[in-house]
Specification:
This protein has 166 residues and is an alpha+beta fold. The protein has helices spanning 12-18, 32-35, 43-55, 113-116, 136-143, 148-162; strands at residues 59-65, 71-77, 99-100, 103-104, 130-131, 134-135. The protein is 31% helix and 13% strand. The structure holds iron/sulfur cluster (2 copies).
Length: 166
């Protein structure tokens, strides 16, 4: 699969009329290349980067499923429903932390790939294009499978770090 480079298809006036319905329910997924930098080449580098990202308080790890129902872990913005100090959540639903009264606070280049590829067609037809033979959601989910082992380590370390000891 070739790399996907989203074209800016923002429609600010349409999204203002809508009021950000998509952002109020489930933020988009980041592509791993938006989180890791080119210099994060070793397992140690990647673990360190994931911890930095999660410690910023703006991101969470979520369970995602590709079009074949295979489970992966991916990163998306934190939401209004994210609980406590455990940054990882099995449920990424809720209002995106980046949504303001003036729309998304991130510029187009900074937004998650899933947000960048959403085609506004308000009121009822906003949609994602198909990439190859799969949905954008599935494409991004599968891209995260390369980091499965690293993310498992990060999840285990964070659970130990933040678990409430009863
Ligand atoms: S993409 Fe669609 S649902 Fe999302 S804010 Fe724009 S018009 Fe609303
Ligand atoms: S990052 Fe921006 S565009 Fe994406 S869900 Fe959040 S507010 Fe909406």
């Amino acid at each position: 699969m070739n790399k996907v480079i989203p074209i800016n298809n923002e429609n600010i006036s349409m999204c203002q009329k809508c009021g950000g319905e998509c952002c109020k329910h489930k933020p988009g997924l980041y592509h791993p290349d938006q989180i890791l930098s080119g210099s994060d080449t070793t397992t140690h580098d990647r673990i360190k980067r994931f911890h930095e990202v999660l410690d910023s308080g703006k991101f969470i790890i979520v369970d995602v499923y590709d079009d074949n129902e295979k489970r992966h872990w991916a990163i998306q913005p934190r939401t209004s429903l994210t609980q406590g100090k455990i940054a990882e959540s099995a449920d990424g639903w809720g209002v995106c932390v980046n949504l303001t009264n003036n729309g998304c606070s991130l510029n187009f280049q900074e937004r998650p790939m899933e947000c960048q590829t959403l085609v506004p067609d308000w009121p009822n037809s906003c949609h994602h294009p198909i990439i190859g033979d799969q949905s954008v959601y599935s494409y991004i989910s599968r891209e995260w499978s390369r980091y499965r082992v690293v993310m498992r380590i990060v999840l285990d370390q964070r659970w130990e770090k933040y678990a409430i000891k009863g």
